[in-house]
């Protein structure tokens, strides 16, 4: 098992430290669920966000189904196009929400969530594999830096598990 060592408080530096460590973690294991579970754990313990988890794409029912996560219980199914997660699937892009209370179609799993970032993870056929969803109890917690590095994380998942 790898030990994560975070020496810097700068967000860029933290991402630059953990991404190669996550990559080496998943290189040694082929099971998707096991790897997504560890990635959620690494992100939660590193950044102490409120909720970190994956929704897995069910292309038959066109729904997102709750997968490995860290944090309080969450809704189990999100239809394509609904909520921030379903919209990220529909649009095919990362969505940053500074204030979830202002978002017209945010699905509130907890009233404590105030801001959110949602990143699509693709398989190697460019179909949706999963959605990485992260919530914070602070407003405007996520920015372009998070979108950039979490997008890089999504690429790593695609490369090894997609
Ligand atoms: N807020 C998400 C739902 C998932 S929970 O935040 C864990 C959404 O609007 O899609």
- Which structural class should the secondary elements be placed in? alpha+beta
Please tally the helical runs, counting DSSP H or I stretches of 4 or more residues.
Answer: 4
CATH architecture: 2-Layer Sandwich
Strand order in the sheet with the most strands: 3-2-1-6-5-4
Report the major sheet.
6 strands, antiparallel
Assigned CATH superfamily? GAF domain
| CATH top-level class | Alpha Beta
Topology:
Elements lengths: L10 H17 L4 H16 L3 E8 L4 E8 L6 E3 L3 H9 L3 E3 L17 E8 L5 E9 L7 H18 L1
Antiparallel strand pairs: 1-2, 1-6, 2-3, 4-5, 5-6
This protein binds methionine sulfoxide (SME).
Methionine sulfoxide binds next to helix 3 and strand 6.
Written account of the structure:
By secondary structure, the protein is of the alpha+beta class. The chain has one domain: 2-Layer Sandwich (Beta-Lactamase). Helix content is 37%, strand content 24%. It is built from four helices and six strands, in the order H-H-E-E-E-H-E-E-E-H. The longest helix is centred in the last third of the chain and has 18 residues, at 144-161. The chain is globular and about 40 Å long. The two termini are 23 Å apart. The model has no long low-confidence stretch (mean pLDDT 93). Bound molecules: methionine sulfoxide. Residues 51, 74-75, 78, 83-85, 106-107, 109, 113, 116, 133, 135 line the site of methionine sulfoxide.
